[in-house]
Write a structure and sequence with these properties.
Blueprint lengths: L2 E3 L1 H7 L2 H17 L2 E11 L2 E10 L4 E10 L2 E10 L5 E6 L1 H19 L6 E5 L3 H13 L5 E5 L3 H11 L2 E2 L3 H5 L3 E4 L18 E4 L12 H6 E6 L2 H7 L1 H8 L8 E3 H5 L12 E5 L4 H18 L3 E2 L1
Parallel strand pairs: 1-6, 7-8, 7-10, 8-9, 10-11, 11-14, 12-13, 12-14
Antiparallel strand pairs: 1-15, 2-3, 3-4, 4-5, 5-6
Helix pairs in contact: 2-3, 2-4, 2-11, 3-4, 3-11
């Protein structure tokens, strides 16, 4: 019978390290060509959007789709997981925490493979709940991180976030940007990170803006970058103004944009020197949702968590 997992179940089952391991393995399967990923679609609701995204992971043995309804006051997420070899619904999983973990895990994988050796500081611009899993997952993947510096515009949110994750509060965007790894995870439609602020060797994980017309990075970030990658070029063409607009303006070419799976698989080297600025543009893909949902189901079965329906 299918398994139903609640948000509380997912939170109890999955650690940041579980998420990192699941997403890293997903990147390897993407590189091997055994995963088919469909970009996100969005449909208009009254005052909101309905989005869906799907993937088939033949090696893992699952197919799945995430669907969510988002409004100004929040969103509701669910993943439906199917057996890839027969007509069987395996699980239905409430997927808000699942999504936060897989997004944080993707940045963590990027940090593991693309941060300069010995990276010891993490800057975070944005202090929402997505930001908390960014910190937790990157710490799990990069044990040399010793200090986290965070910035957001709302003082109360900044203080709460810093208490929750053990971060130092920055007074400006720039202070958070002057770290070895820099994560942008905001809802801003205008750039929150300027390339002139970045130190030599910085890795930028841009995770917030995933709709055309919204940007977190200015063009100087891209101009300074020695290596640029994303999670899916197909999806980036549809969603990522952080790449689309610099390409339209001649600061970048799609031929220069790689996918992170190429680095994880060892097909491209990524960083060439400790002084390179490197950019990972993360939009969030369904293949990660399937991978982490499969891990949640595996752990739930081992521990007797969830409800059959």
């Amino acid at each position: 019978m299918p398994l139903y997992l609640t948000e509380a179940d997912v939170t109890a089952l999955l650690t940041p390290l579980d998420a990192v391991e699941a997403v890293e393995a997903c990147f390897r399967r993407l590189a091997a060509g055994v995963v088919e990923n469909a970009p996100r679609r969005r449909l208009a609701l009254e005052g909101g959007r309905l989005a869906d995204m799907a993937a088939v992971d033949l090696e893992l043995g699952y197919a799945g789709a995430k669907i969510y309804a988002g409004f100004s006051d929040g969103a509701a997420f669910v993943v439906a997981l199917f057996d890839a070899a027969r007509p069987e619904l395996v699980a239905v999983i409430e997927a808000d925490q699942l999504g936060r973990l897989r997004t944080g895990a993707a940045s963590a994988v990027a940090s593991k493979y693309l941060a300069r050796e010995g990276a010891s500081s993490l800057g975070v611009i944005g202090c929402g709940r997505q930001a908390e899993t960014q910190v937790a997952c990157i710490r799990a993947a990069v044990p040399t991180i010793e200090r986290v510096v965070a910035y957001c515009r709302t003082d109360a949110s900044l203080k709460r976030f810093c208490r929750a994750v053990g971060a130092d509060a920055a007074e400006t965007h720039r202070e958070a940007a002057e770290q070895d790894v820099v994560v942008t995870i905001t809802t801003s439609r205008d750039p929150v990170l300027r390339g002139e602020w970045l130190p030599p060797g910085a890795l930028v994980c841009a995770c917030g803006a995933n709709a055309l017309g919204a940007r977190e990075l200015d063009n100087v970030v891209i101009q300074r970058a020695g290596f640029v990658c994303c999670d899916s070029k197909e999806q980036a063409r549809l969603e990522s103004s952080d790449l689309v607009e610099p390409i339209e303006q001649g600061d970048l070419d799609w031929l220069e944009v790689h996918e992170l799976q190429e680095v994880v698989a060892g097909d491209v080297s990524g960083r060439q020197s400790d002084d390179d600025v490197v950019v990972f543009k993360s939009n969030g893909i369904a293949a990660w949702d399937v991978a982490i949902a499969a891990r949640a189901v595996e752990l739930a079965r081992e521990r007797g968590v969830g409800q059959a329906f």
